[in-house]
Structure formats: C-alpha cells, structure tokens
Specification:
There is one protein chain. The protein is of the alpha/beta class. The chain has a domain of 108 residues: Alpha-Beta Horseshoe (Leucine-rich repeat, LRR (right-handed beta-alpha superhelix)), CATH 3.80.10.10. It is built from five helices and five strands. The radius of gyration is 16 Å and the shape is globular.
Length: 163
Amino acid sequence: MSLSKALIESNVTQLWRLNISNCDIKEEGTTQIICDLRNNKKLVHLILDYNRFESKDTFPPIFIDSIVFNKTLNNLSIAGCEFNKHKLNFLFDALCHNETLHRLNLSNNQLTTDDMRKFRDIFSNERHPLSLKHLDLSSNLFDVIIIPLIPLTLLGRRRPRPP
C-alpha cells in the first residue's frame, strides 16, 4: 500500500488534517495523492504548500476530479506551488464545482492581476457559486489593488440586479 493510500484512504484512517508541504512531490506521487483524495470521506484540511506537482498529463484532470468529488475537504493550502496559467485554469474549473471548500491559500504562487481578473470574471457569474470564506493571496505579483478583482460574493455582497 502506498503512503498516500494509507494516509488518505477513508476506510484505513481517521486522519482529518494532512500537511505534506515541502516534500518535493513529483510525477507519480502527485497522481497517487490526488487519486486517493477523490474518495476520501474524512480529510478536512490538506496542506500541499511548496510542492511543484510536475505531473504534466495527469495533474489537471485528476486534480479537478479530486476537488469536485471530495465532499469533506474545506481547507486547501497550495501556497508556493508555482501555479502557472494552465494549472490555474484547472483550479478555477474545479472551484466552480466544489461546494465545500471554505479556505484556499494561494499565497506565493506568482499570481498576477490578470489571473485575478479571470478569477473575478468566472466567480462573479451566478452560475458558478463560490463557497470560499477565506482566500489568502499574499505574496503574489499584483500591480494594482486587487479588492475590486475579488468577486462580490466572496466579499459578502451580492451583485446589484439590473433594473
């Protein structure tokens, strides 16, 4: 049995918080952890900070599935994971379908103002409700004040209805 299966598989563990930050997780490890996360029914907090997740082909679809199908995870920290535009698109897609994630840490990922504009555009749409209550965007590359780029629903306000 792989380490990730032993740590994450629901019928084996009572684990509700897992911190595997700075573990230099690569190809096979990325795939295995994310696959095992899909069916977990107990894990609430997952901290993956400062892993690069270099799996080129499997990371995006498996990552989306794991975030969409896991109904217990409410805190995901992926700080410093070098999320490029490609991986960020998959993250945004996964967030569109997840209703349990309340805390997301995207700090130190070199996100740009354009990335936040895309985030706002996706989640300002009522078809994509956002369950987040806490979003950490510290230590990124924003060139403007980003408050106007955060969806109003995340700020606790509804968009004004057109007259």
